Amino acid sequence: MRAHSLRKDVKRTVSGALARLCRRQPVTAEQLRAAQPRRILVVRQHNQMGDMVCATPALRALRETFPQSEITLVCAPVNRDVVLHNPHLDRVLVFDKRACTRPLPLLRFLGELRRLRPDAAFVLNSVSYSVTSAALAAASGAPLLIGGDSLPFGFDISRHAYSLVMPSQPDLDRHAVDHNLAPLEAIGIRTADRRIVVVPAAAEEAAAREIDDHVPGSGGLWLLHPGAGKAQNRWPAGRFAEVAARAVREGRRVLVLQGPADGPAMADFSTEVAGRLAPQELPSPPVNPPVTVGVCAALLARAERFLCNDTGLMHVAGAVGTPTLALFGPTDPALWGPQAPEVLCLRGAQGRLETLETDNVWDLWRRLPPRSGPTRG
Length: 377
Known about the structure:
Layout: H1 2-20, H2 29-35, E1 39-44, H3 49-54, H4 56-65, E2 70-75, H5 80-83, E3 91-94, H6 103-115, E4 120-123, H7 131-139, E5 144-148, H8 158-161, E6 164-166, H9 176-185, H10 202-213, E7 221-225, H11 237-249, E8 253-256, H12 263-277, H13 293-302, E9 305-309, H14 312-320, E10 324-328, H15 333-336, E11 343-347, H16 358-366
Parallel strand pairs: 1-2, 1-4, 2-3, 4-5, 5-6, 7-8, 7-9, 9-10, 10-11
């Protein structure tokens, strides 16, 4: 604990000193909007997928304010597929922080960043402050740096290195979409359209169509995702399995989605669902191997309904309009639930997922208004 605190103190001291060496030309919000920079760099290095989906309206706001600009986003590897085909971006650069601890990959990336020659760089914060994002924006060589105030997060960077400082709020005091938009709105960069966006590529749609075609049975596709990155966000595997088994007994076309980190949760789920279906000699629903976020988005766009925990794919489902029942525990759905009419959020009593009863979840899920056929050909 003491070592962690010491590292943080060193990081604050060093980053503050470097910020004083990276001073940029000051600019007002009005001057920035009037300048209409030709090349804009956006750096958002946070690695939470759901938070990145919630930030897509902020990208729309930038595009609507600077319609003629070429906009490039720098993101973490986990979020590449979330934004790769975003209509509000011209280019996506992936910064692999782990790989760039080695000199050669770091120099290659910085060279690519410098070749963009941005006129302005935006550092977009979340509920944490990314010193890495600020450093990458400065390293790009952009004459104008715009970013959220670093002081509420304990860093003295923004008042020295930024041309224009946006307000920031470390605590999520409003919905995540609004929280991501608020700093930009404070300097006049706005959008009336707050819908989140995830767009699969044509190849990902074709892959989803092939997966869909191999799920046995007839009728619409019923998708489930029993996993979640945090253990406290997972509804008990046995109850998830019972809901899946009921859908199979009804003759539904059930497909189970999983992510690369869902191994333990999927093992428990598979054991539980097999035990419930064995007495009726029914096969367990197929579990799809981990695929890209884009393929998941394309599958969700074809699905009749979806059942999931509070996780990244929940936001993807909201983006593509899938009728969804999302199960919440400690996280407040008023802050993180997708703002899509097709998504119903159900929270356990006192923030405890185990209080959600199987019968209630099954009844709500099966009564969701169904989607009539695939939305993508």
